[in-house]
Every structure is written in C-alpha cells, then in structure tokens.
Amino acid sequence: MKPAPTLSTAFLQPAGQALPAPLLELRKQRGAALVDMPLPTRKTENWKYSSKRLKLTEEMAISLPTTGKAGSALAVPGYKVVFTNGVMIPEASEYPDLDDISIQRFGELSEAQARDLAERLDSTLDMKTVQFAGLNTARFEDGLVIRLNPNAVLDQPLFIINEVTADASGSAFPRIYVDAGANSQITLVEEYISSGQEPVMVNTVTEFTLAEGANVTNIRLCMDGENVQHIGATGVRQQRNSRFESHCMGFGGPLRRHDLQVRLEEQGAECKLNGVVVTQGTQHYDNHTTIEHIAANCDSEETYRNIATDKSHAVFNGRIHIHQDAQKSNANMNNKNLLLTTGAEIDTKPELEIYADDVKCAHGATIGQLDEESLFYLVSRGIPRREANVLLTMAFINELVVQIPVEAVRETVHTRLNQFFDQAFQEV
C-alpha cells in the first residue's frame, strides 16, 4: 500500500527571528506538532474536491522576499496597512493614530503583550479541521494586532493590502488578529493580490474576538493571480449581543480555499455571512463555512452564490451546528449556484445539525443554468444576446454585491466581474 503523503520538512524550517520570544516559542511548538502531518487526499472529507489541486513543491517552502510591490487594485479611501509577502511595510502604510485603537506589528509587541497574544492565537479555529492554519502559525514572520478599546469606533474602513510578488517560487504567511472591545466598531477590508508568474502559495489566517456589543464588518477580496495557490482561514468568537458581518468575494485560481468558522458563544450574538465566487477556465474555488450556535437566542444568516464557466470547479460546504443549550436559535443558510457551460462543475453540501428542540432553522441549495425563456424575452425586446446573458448573470449575484458596505470594494468587484463576463460571453 502506498504511504499517505505528508508535509515536507522543508515547510517546517525556521523562519525569520525578528519576533518576541513568546511568539517564537509558539511557532516552535506548532512546527513540532506538524512533523509528519498527513496532507489531504480525496479520502479527507473536507478536502475531497480540492486535494488534487494542492501542489506543494520544495521550492515553494522558501519564504518569499519582502522586496517589490504588486500595487493595490483598490483606490483606498480610508486607512491602510500594506503587507508584501507576509511582512508589513510601514512606509507604505497609513493607519489611524487614535488613543482608543491600537495597531501593532508582531515585532513591536512587548514580551507581556506577545505572551498574551500567543495564548490567544488559534483559539478561534478548530485546528483539527483547518489543517493549514497550524502551518501559518509555525511559519509567520510578521503579523498585525488590532485592538479596540471599549466603545472605540473606527471612523473609516481599514484596508489590509496583502501583496505577493511571485518573481520566484516560495510562500507567504500573512497573519491578522483583531480584538474588538465592548461596543466597539470596525470595518476591516482584506485584499489579496499578486504579481509575477512563478508558482507560489499564500497561507493566511485572520482571527476576530468580539466582546459584548462589538460590531465588526469583514470584507475579504481574493484576487490573486493564476500562479497562486491561496489557502486561507478566518476564525470568529462572539460574546453577548455582538454582531459579525462577512462579505467574501472570490475570483478563482489554480487552488482557492477559504475556511470561515464562527462561534456564537453568548446570548444575543448574531452573524451574517455573504459570499460570491466566480470561476472560469480550469480554475478552482472551495469555500467551507461553519457556524456554531453555542448559546441561546442567537441569530445567523448565510448566503453564498457561485458561478462557474468553461471547465472550472466551485465548491461550497456550509455547516450550522445548533448545540443542546442553544434554544431559541434562528439560523438560515442559502446557497445558489449557476453553471454557464456543461463542462463546469459545482459541488454543494449544506449541513444542519440540531441538538436543541426550540429553534427556527432552514437550509437549501440549488444548481441551475440561465433560464432560456428569460433570455428569449430579453432578446425579443431588442437586447443583444450577450448583454442579455450578462444582465441575467449579474442579477443572480447582484443582491449580494450591492450589500458590500464599502464603495471602493463594490467598484473593484464590478470591474473584475465585467472582465469575467467579457470572457464568459464572448460574441460569436
């Protein structure tokens, strides 16, 4: 019998050392735990559709240098922090200097602050199901800690621009930790972009802890190039009456994988998860979401839309878990999918696991194609067939796009969608 593939020891070599001792110790512990880590295969349930896309070469284990600029696709209207190949670039960043909001690089932390952070990192994620989050912890060279004091309000969105310069093969490990104090508010935009043509891996982890009454909006815009394997994880822990809103906008590549895990730990917590994915050519995008209703009287709403054309592949796996004590939970999940060609593939698996008896829960998924009657109606009214296709396809996802609360991101998404439509609906 052929032995199961394991993570190469090249990926566990020591990274940069410019970090406080508690974070270096945490990295060392995570690295030791990953020795002989099995790589996912088709028999790995949560990677069954994506494992064959994972290509981790020895060259890819090398940390990418922090030189070069990819250039943000966004005209950033608010504050920004720029990462190049996983390391923050202070001279390119412009973030708020406010007494009640702290933004620090990992390397700037005191030993006491770093010890506190080391105890918190990975606490929002189920590390058994998010295999590569541990690799990020073992390899990050830098990171960002954002702390909001109670009642602090960030007046403009904060953009985290993660640039990857793929002039040589390698990997980058961006890391973000957000600690939102009681009744604080922040909108955080994560933008992932790249330049260069060499095969690289980006392994990202972003974590949020929301204290009582905190209100956090997270927008994740994945626009890496065709040479970038992107494996990301987002973890969220919510306390009483807090609200978390997520908007994940994804454009396909050789491998795109995002795990989003939310824990509603105290009464009155609520979350709203929106996602849009488009794939073309031979691209692949895999979204896995989990919402844990742990406390009573919590609400969750989840809506994801996928569009696939050519021979591309989109995957959605959404799981809602209602724990025994989570009475009066209100949970709704909806996933709709649109196939534009017969060669494209979409796999969807909505899951609802309920152990409480006084709840309101619903989930559903559909996969279909553009309605020929609607197309005929539009064409019969003088609209060219290509424009009719674009109108119907845009209508399929526009209800989620218009909900993105930052105009600059909406404009960027529309621009990328128009590029997608230009290729998907070429004039005959």
TrEMBL record:
SUPFAM superfamilies, A to Z: Stabilizer of iron transporter SufD (SSF101960)
InterPro entries membership: Fe-S_cluster_assembly_SufBD, SUF_FeS_clus_asmbl_SufBD_core, SUF_FeS_clus_asmbl_SufBD_sf, SUF_FeS_clus_asmbl_SufD
Record-level GO BP terms: iron-sulfur cluster assembly
A Pfam family hit: SUFBD_core
Record domain SUF system FeS cluster assembly SufBD core: where: 168-396
Record-linked PANTHER family: PROTEIN ABCI7, CHLOROPLASTIC (PTHR43575:SF1)
Designated name of the protein: Fe-S cluster assembly protein SufD
The species this protein was found in: Marinobacter adhaerens
Gene: sufD
